[in-house]
Amino acid sequence: MQGLALIVPAYPGIDDLDLGKDYYIGVSPTTPLQDFSRPTLPLYTVRYFDTGDLETLQMLRAIRENVSLREVGDLPSGQHFLRPEQLRDAFEKTFPESLEKS
């Protein structure tokens, strides 16, 4: 698997994971602070470009599920596209070492 990096999202007990291959641990700004035994890489989930897109996504979900807008549950917030400096700031506060390898 030359030229391919394995990234496993952080979870409790990940330090015990043995894949038989080298891998990175993917961390997000909300990953609980801890020291990992393997190198980390920043991961950030993006589901929409702007917070204003939530209304559109909610409408699309209602159409897909064939329910009224009132019946659609809340959509995940805080998963909008960030400017590079915002993303860098978020990771510098939690896992600055993950930025060194990205």
What does this structure look like?
This protein has 3 helices and 3 strands. A 3-stranded parallel beta sheet has the order 1-2-3. The protein starts with 6 loop residues before the first strand and ends with a helix. The mean pLDDT is 88. The protein is elongated and about 50 Å long. The chain is of the alpha/beta class.
> Termini separation (Å)?
19 Å
Largest sheet: 3 strands, parallel
Overall mean confidence score, pLDDT: 88
Would you tell me the structural class of the helices and strands? alpha/beta
| Tally of individual helices | 3
Query: How many β-strand runs?
Result: 3
The largest beta-sheet arranges its strands as 1-2-3
The percent range for helix content is 25-40%
Strand content: 5-15%
- Rg, Å, rounded: 17 Å
Low-confidence stretches: none
Short description:
The protein has about 100 residues and is α/β, with parallel strands linked by helices.
